[in-house]
Amino acid sequence: MRDSNPQSAVKVPEDAVSRPWLSTHPEQSPTDDFWAFAELAKTAQQHGIFLSIGVIERSLIGSTVWCTNLLFGPDGTLLSKHRKLKPTGAERMIWHEGEDVNPVTPHGDPEAEAREADNMRVVDTKIGKLGANICWESECNLVRNPG
Fold first, then answer.
1. CB atoms within 10 A of CB 92
2. Which of 6, 38, 80, 87 has the fewest CB within 10 Å, making it most exposed?
């Protein structure tokens, strides 16, 4: 059985998308809120890879959890965060619905803020466009054809 304890889920910093989070925040220890997030970012950075990984994300306050995909670039930067829009069946007893936008810390660049807030973001990279759907979202018409 899966561990549904929110304490075992990953906390994702609000200011992480499209920013060099590893270089601007202190080293994390296993008891720090963002330790697991930092370990994933460091893994992408140390191996110079794009890392697309599914995690259970925990809210920064409280115990809400989401099924989330995190996409890290080869430098460890979080390129996108996608929360599953609609948990299916019994999942709704544990996981919360995703929003169409992610919370973004304002930083004075409205265009960048809009890109960072997009919950269905596709990122242009040197290897092509990268994005992620979770589970049955690949079968949803509006996800496949957002126009």
1. 11
2. 6
- Give which of 128, 78, 127 is closest to 102, Cα–Cα: 78
Residue boundaries of the structural domains of the chain:
6-144
What is the biggest distance separating any 2 CA atoms in the chain, rounded to whole angstroms? 45
Cα separation, 100 vs 105, whole angstroms: 16
User: H or E stretch including 11?
Assistant: strand 10-11
pLDDT at res. 15: 84
Q: What is the pLDDT of residues 63-94, one digit of tens each?
A: 888 889 999 999 999 999 988 887 777 777 77
May I ask the CATH class of domain 6-144?
alpha beta
Tokens of 34: 């963002």
